[in-house]
Specification:
Layout: H1 15-25, E1 29-33, H2 39-51, E2 56-60, H3 72-80, E3 87-90, H4 94-97, H5 101-104, E4 109-114, H6 120-128, E5 134-143, E6 150-151, E7 160-161, H7 164-172, E8 177-182, E9 188-193
Parallel strand pairs: 1-2, 1-4, 2-3, 4-5
Antiparallel strand pairs: 5-9, 6-7, 8-9
Helix pairs in contact: 1-2, 6-7
Length: 209
């Protein structure tokens, strides 16, 4: 949903970019926060399979929209239907996940995809929760990140406006970061470190942001 994909001509839309990055970066660990039906973790999962190096995806999705992700066996069966066994799903918010042993056991992260609750505050939390674990050449991708948009995904009584773009504007002011926006469909922002080193104490210190 929202990745400019099109079924009639088998076009993955921005999924081509996700696949290419995973093949180029060849990460041992990808962290993917949020996905309605698993499009992004599936694309990453395919890329890591094709890399042939045992890479895995940590997929954090609390299933707040509906109950699609609430049954662990059904989730495994869903990913297995795409030939994938390299996705570790956690039916938790990021706030809950960072208190788990799975979070403490995470190694370094080569790709981080942020697509959870689309507020600037939550995007910041999702980003900073993993910033210290990012490799020097890691990439971070933010979805729904280029414009404000009203969303009733959680129900009309919980309608809200996406504000991730405000956090992206803040990242663009960091001299040690490169930020590229892709305005297609719901929009995407790609963030990476430059050669400049963040100041001591920065939440992005030692990370690819």
């Amino acid at each position: 949903m929202g990745h400019a994909q099109r079924q009639q001509d088998s076009n993955l839309g921005m999924g081509w970019l996700y696949y290419a990055l995973a093949r180029l970066v060849r990460p041992a660990r990808v962290v993917c926060i949020g996905s309605w039906r698993g499009f992004v973790p599936i694309v990453f999962g395919k890329a890591l399979k094709h890399n042939g190096e045992g890479g895995r995806i940590t997929f954090i999705e609390p299933s707040l929209v509906d109950d699609f992700w609430t049954d662990a066996q059904r989730t495994r069966t869903w990913f297995e239907s795409f030939g994938l066994d390299n996705i570790d799903h956690h039916c938790l918010t990021t706030q809950a996940f960072v208190a788990t042993e799975a979070y403490r056991a995470l190694g370094t992260i080569g790709l981080l995809f942020v697509d959870g609750y689309h507020s600037a505050e939550q995007a910041r939390f999702d980003h900073e929760a993993f910033a210290e674990r990012l490799t020097e050449d890691a990439y971070v991708l933010f979805h729904d990140s280029v414009r404000p948009r009203s969303s009733g995904m959680y129900g009309e009584d919980k309608r809200y406006v996406h504000t991730v773009h405000l956090y992206i504007d803040e990242l663009k002011r960091h001299p040690h970061l490169q930020v590229i926006d892709f305005p297609f469909d719901a929009g995407l922002s790609l963030v990476r470190r430059t050669s400049a080193v963040p100041s001591a104490g920065s939440p992005l210190r030692g990370a690819a942001a």
